[in-house]
Amino acid sequence: MFWDHVAWIYDVFANGVNRKANRALCATVEAAIHPGDDVLECACGTGLLSGVIAGKCKSLVATDFSANMLKRAQKKYANRSNIVFEQANILQLGYPTARFDAVVAANVIHLLDKPYTALRELDRVCTPGGRIIIPTYMNQNDKGGPKRVSGMIGKAGADFKRAFTLASYQQFFADAGYTQVRRQGLKPDLVVGDFDSLGSVPEGEKIVRHPVMKDDTDMMYSLKECLGRGYRNFLILGATGGRLDHTVANLCALYYLAMFFFKQKTAYEIGQ
């Protein structure tokens, strides 16, 4: 496993090559932690954030998939009484639902085959109204290639599953909105899409699933589905954002709706 092999030198990279970014990361995460919090940290590595979090919270369970990373973190914070280090898989956490006040998973989402499965697990173990803190590297440049540091790590053997810009990272969480809606206790009457970004098909709801390879967008399919079911009033949320192609596609969807109603009105007038 790559991370087991590089555990011995990881701190050199974190405190040297990536020192500036990690200082900002520590400050951001520390500000989000409250003194009375019971906190879960996933992908703690050698404990870059663990000490910062433990210095602020009531208790910390710090986990990682790599045994060698955990050994180094345990040795580093052996004198901390409010930290427990455990080996765990972020995709299948063995903790009770609503167990933690805050959940931290830093610099790991881009490494996962099933990131939305991880989000669901983080959401599950976090208390209602708690905080899920998921900072990660913006490891893609404006030309679509890896940034310098990410390119170096990739060449060393790290397997990046995703590359993010700020806009695409925001879109990544927008695609996970279904989880947030469900967490608020709202149940949709119908869920339409191909669910490729979600990573799985939602369970327990009325589902209309479309193939990933198709001519229309999920938004257009949703509009056509609703029109076919007799709905005539539409409120479209999240239609614009960081991706120009999505914005243009949604404008085209609005045009489709406008033409649909125009043709209906014309047919009605002719019928009269």
Largest sheet: 5 strands, parallel
CATH architecture of the largest domain: 3-Layer(aba) Sandwich
Tell me the CATH superfamily of the largest domain.
Vaccinia Virus protein VP39
Tell me the fraction of residues in β-strands, as a range. Answer: 5-15%
Examine the coordinates and then state which fold CATH places here, giving the name of the CATH topology of the largest domain. Rossmann fold
List low-pLDDT spans. Answer: none
Q: What is the CA-based Rg, rounded?
A: 23 Å
Which strand order spans the largest sheet, edge to edge or round the barrel? Answer: 3-2-1-4-5
Order of helices and strands: HHEHEHEEHEHHHEEHH
Q: Mind explaining what this structure looks like?
A:
This protein is an alpha/beta fold and 272 residues long. It folds into two domains: 2-180, Vaccinia Virus protein VP39 (Rossmann fold, 3-Layer(aba) Sandwich); 188-271, no CATH class. It is 44% helix and 13% strand. It has ten helices and seven strands. The protein has a five-stranded parallel β-sheet with strand order 3-2-1-4-5. α1 crosses α4 (67-76). The chain is elongated and about 85 Å long. It starts with a helix and ends with a helix. 25% of the residues are buried. The model has no long low-confidence stretch (mean pLDDT 82).
